[in-house]
Amino acid sequence: HDDTDEYRWEGVSKNTYGAFMHVALSQGMLKALKKCFLSVVVSFLVQLTLSVELFYTLPEVYGLDHHICGIPSDIQLSAVFVFVILMCNNCPDMWKGFKIAAFSTYLRLKSDDASSADVNVRSLEWSLCERASVVLIAVGLELGSWTMLLITGIKFIMTATSVEMVMRSTVSIVFVLQVDELLYGVTTQKKVKKSVQMTAYRTVHTKA
Question: Maximum CA pair distance of the chain?
């Protein structure tokens, strides 16, 4: 199972979605539901609830012409640009997670002995239906909350009535995006975290 130009070994993201994906692929869906699903649900609901409630609480953009005119357009556009860039930092990890859940056929587990170079490689025998369920939970939910936060964040910036609120809106929405990482650090079992750290999955990548 040596690496070739068509493959690389990658670990899952260190958040609640990545932990669920790892446990599902390495130990089975039932154990993933038992160990990680609650954290995934809480993370998704917190992000979704905050974004949806904020979205419908904010005024409509077209109804705030007299307020928006007091804010330089270059500041608003710059804030939107920075916000989108910050949000897009999550895209590579989501794409990587999709490739692992949908297409990875082998996992590689490093030895517990830090001085040892031994690795244990085993195949992943998963049906299409099982992989689809992992993609839906571990990637679909994260993508759904990310999309809603992106839309809400842009609306938050565009409806801000002061320069200070423009800056605050950018930072606050990005903080909500990190809820899944915070929950991973607080609620995920130490054994799962260690396993995530020690395991890599073989994924396909396009040659340059």
Answer: 67
Q: For residue 173, what are the contacts with CB-CB under 8 A and spacing of at least 6? A: 51, 83, 149, 152, 153, 156
Contacts of 41 (CB under 8 A, 6+ apart): none
CB 97 within 8 A of CB 139: yes
Q: What is the model's pTM?
A: 0.84
Partner residues linked to 202 by β-bridges: 9
**Which contacts qualify for 119-127: CB closer than 8 Å, 24 or more apart?**
121/1, 124/25, 124/201, 126/25
Write the single-letter amino acid at 194: K
Report the DSSP beta bridge partners of residue 106: 123
Q: How many CB atoms lie within 10 A of CB 32?
A: 24
142-184 tens-digit pLDDT: 999 999 999 999 988 888 877 777 777 778 888 888 999 999 9
